[in-house]
What does this fold into?
Amino acid sequence: GYDYISAESGNFCFSPDSNHLAYVIAEDNKEYVIYDNKKSDGYDRVTKSEGGVTSLWKFIFSPDSKHFAYVVIENGKYYVIYDNQKSEGYDNIDWWKSDNFIFSPDSQHFAYWTKQNDKYYVVYDGEKSEGYDEHISLDKKGDYVNNYMFIFSPDSKHFVYVATQDGKQYVVYNNQKSESYDSVNGFNLVFSPNSKHFLYTIDLGGKYYVVYDGQKTDEYDYIKRFDNYDSVFSPDSQHFAYIIKQGDKEYVIYDGKKSEEYSHVWDLTFSPDSKHFAYVVEENNKNDFVVDATRLSFLDNSNYINFSFINNNLIKVIYLQNNNLYSRIINLDNL
It folds into this structure.
């Protein structure tokens, strides 16, 4: 038997294919990882205790289940154990976010943030980047911009993150640094589904811009976070859309063209074949449904709930009216 087996929620970790199991045990004041019934070397810590709750530092399997990594502490230094090989020691490892200790979609690449001598580094496939400063977490408006994120393109050929140096931020794309910005919104880094296009948003001089394939758009008062709506790129990667704010009005930018103004816009959604584009708006305290730039007003005196494409030409809308829940099918062929 062991002196201790970590039994907190999530501390027994299965690989995606369910063929491998990892967990933490303790013996003689050392902690070990048991991986497929084989015991690792002993470390000072593989688990952390925070607020009386013990949990893993970080276990992660590659999507194909062939690679396994985790974080340990030994003699005050942090190490990444990757396929049973120990990295160099660091002062800290930013392990705690699922989006900054990651494998590429094809399982061939692995990346994480580290800290050493007051500088931050990205370790990508074992190679350490130049040193960066601590992240800027808020933009000029005080909004959280999550600049710890990593993003791989869907085909795993491109790798992107945000770096901070001397009070400015940069987008690092395949190890190439962009021009400097006041801030970059880490929530708004997005590749097209075919991996050929890349888009992000920046704050520069108190104005906001979209950078699309390296080209900066018109300036806006604000750009909504991309995780607030369904998609930015169409499934075929040929179209893109996002929501901006000018003054107290919101607009949809679709393929670079601005819509009419609304009080609020949300739920930007493309059809599966990318030929149709829909969203919901609010103006004069009522909701309307916009499909292919045609405004439908059947939502008068009702509370919109949500909508989805059933197929390429049919949309199902759910809404609340007079305390009753309704659904409506919109046939786009009839518009």
